[in-house]
């Protein structure tokens, strides 16, 4: 039968796997490993793009948002992080409620934001009341702006400060106005990897448990993967499998975001564990395989422009991503690695989407389309 792979030369095993994908068959661990090891990126991309096209045609979405990195104080000291400062460090900061509300007000007027991505360090001096007061005030003053905030590991930190369960913390924060959780803190959901790059952070099972609790409480979330540090292909597949398994149970993940580790200014680079970022080709492979693995399960794959730049994000849309992500005004975490482009205007995103012949659509926090451009 004539299909999109008929006219190209590819390894016969990869062809068989990709034909299985096109026929809707479920792949196994070995198939994923072969895809990850394959250099047939173009063929894999043709198939992942077809899957994206079946779901979204030529529409690519984005969201107008800001990142509020509310504190850089952190006692978790991840080796891949250039953002944190220890308590009482001269460069440490924690934003007050007033500062946060002012930034939201200005961003709303200037950029028409509809989402706040609220993330920070593991600051042991912040009680749950800090978050509750801020979330309630945001909802009172800006009822149409969604709060996408606090990774599973931040939720764990708050539960330790409060000496209560993570479920109790999630319940209280939801009541205060938390709409959804970002997927940060997962990195690679394999403890051997975590013990090398973030030994003091929550373990893989904790991340899964907290996400499960959130989903059970009706708080949806994203899932992420930080690749390009010390993991191997088996670790990456395990990560995919663990997320797939939870999604089959809860259906609470709306989007998946693979992003490449940026080693500049990090302890890992200093120790020689990872010297360079993994680059654009790896990004395209990860995007394409994410679409193939989560097809029919997690609907949205983000293009990850933050660590790979706008040009690569455009290409990612042709390799299976359907969402450009957010404008991320005010981002400070990746900026700390010296990455050049860490915020975009919606005009630039729309232009980038249109340059490849796609329709640009602004979406809300839950991926509902607000308007087309
Ligand atoms: S990644 Fe998060 S938890 Fe880890 S050191 Fe940085 S701010 Fe702290």
Task: Summarize the entry for a quick read.
This protein is of the alpha/beta class and 373 residues long. It contains 14 helices and 11 strands.
Question: How would you describe what is shown here?
Answer:
The chain is an alpha/beta fold. The chain has a single domain, classed as TIM Barrel. A four-stranded mixed sheet has the order 9-1-10-11. Helix 4 links the parallel strand 2 and strand 3. Helix 3 packs across helix 12. The two termini are 38 Å apart. The model has no long low-confidence stretch (mean pLDDT 93). Iron/sulfur cluster (SF4) binds next to loops.
Low-confidence stretches: none
CATH architecture: Alpha-Beta Barrel
Measured between the Cα atoms of the first and last residue, the distance is 38 Å
How does the overall form come out from the CA principal axes?
globular
Q: Might you state the CATH topology name?
A: TIM Barrel
Number of domains: 1
Q: Any idea of the CATH class?
A: Alpha Beta
Q: What is the percentage of strand-forming residues?
A: 5-15%
Hetero groups in this structure are:
iron/sulfur cluster
CA gyration radius, whole angstroms = 20 Å
H and E order = HHHEEHEHEHHEHHEHEHHEHEHEE
User: How many runs of DSSP E, i.e. beta strands?
Assistant: 11
Helix vs. strand class: alpha/beta
Biggest β-sheet strands, sense, barrel: 4 strands, mixed
Helix content: 40-55%
Average pLDDT over all residues: 93
Query: What's the tally of helices?
Result: 14
Q: Would you identify the CATH H-level superfamily?
A: Aldolase class I
Query: Major sheet: order of its strands?
Result: 9-1-10-11
